[in-house]
Amino acid sequence: MTRGERSGSRNMEGAEAMIVEKGAKKKRNIVLVGMSGAGKSTLGVLLAKALGMDFVDTDLVIQQQEGRLLQAIIDQDGIEAFMAVEESVVSALQVNDCIIATGGSVIYSEKAMHALRQGGQIVYLHVSYEEIMRRLGNVATRGIVMKNGHTLQDVYEERVPLYRQYSDVTIDCAKKEIEQCVREIVELL
Q1: How large is the average pLDDT for residues 134-157?
Q2: 183 annotated as ligand-binding
Q3: What domains are defined for the chain?
Q4: Which reaction does it catalyse (predicted)?
Q5: Residue 135 in contact with residue 43, Cβ under 8 Å?
Q6: In what order do the strands lie in the sheet with 54-57?
Q7: Is 37 annotated for ligand binding?
Q8: Does 134 belong to an annotated binding site?
Q9: 48 marked among binding-site residues
Q10: E strands present in the chain
Q11: What mean pLDDT comes out for the span 41-57?
Q12: Residue 142 marked in a binding site
């Protein structure tokens, strides 16, 4: 379609123009990624309220589907099984105009990240390792995917480049009030 044809379709009158415009509007999600403790769920709820959008937390969807807490899935079935469930749940999400808070380990699944990107913009909530440690407390009960022998710092250093690779926008949430991060996302998107 040429530029003139596109502008011509915008100048149509009446119902036909409304149908074209309505059909052209693509529904988009805002997907929040980052480490456990970055504030994805908390910020996601506030962002959804600010933008009048629905909110989905993929960790809660996984827990509802499996009937167990994330940590129980990891402890009983292992990391690989948990990650397979996470990939399946995230890849199958059918939501529009929604804020989606993901689990921190979703970044390991190329399939899940591709599905999320197809449906919206990916926002990485960056928080320093020290701040993550302060926020998390006991990492053994948080449902964090950590291979044997790895520390939280190992996981952090492994994931940060992946978050940056997949994200459309990075918001530095360190030493900021959650409302300020919400405002930054609203302004950027």
Answers
A1: 76
A2: no
A3: 27-188 (3.40.50.300)
A4: shikimate + ATP = 3-phosphoshikimate + ADP + H(+)
A5: no
A6: 54-57, 98-101, 29-33, 120-126, 169-172
A7: yes
A8: no
A9: no
A10: 29-33, 54-57, 98-101, 120-126, 169-172
A11: 95
A12: yes
- What would the mean pLDDT of 94-120 be, rounded to a whole number? 94
- What confidence category does residue 138 fall into, taking pLDDT thresholds of 50, 70 and 90? low
The answer on whether 38 is annotated among ligand-binding residues is yes
Please tell me the predicted confidence (pLDDT) of residue 150: 80
CA 168 to chain centre: 11
pLDDT of residue 171: 93
The pair of structure tokens assigned to 24 is 């052209």
Instruction: Tell me the CA distances in angstroms from 154 to 4, 32, 45, 121, 157, one per residue in order.
Output: 54, 21, 29, 27, 5
119 marked as part of a ligand binding site = no
Alpha-carbon gap, residue 47 to 98, rounded angstroms: 10
pLDDT at 134: 86
Tokens of 34: 């980052």
Q: By the 8 A CB rule, do 83 and 128 touch?
A: no
Inform me whether the pLDDT recorded for 6 exceeds 60: no
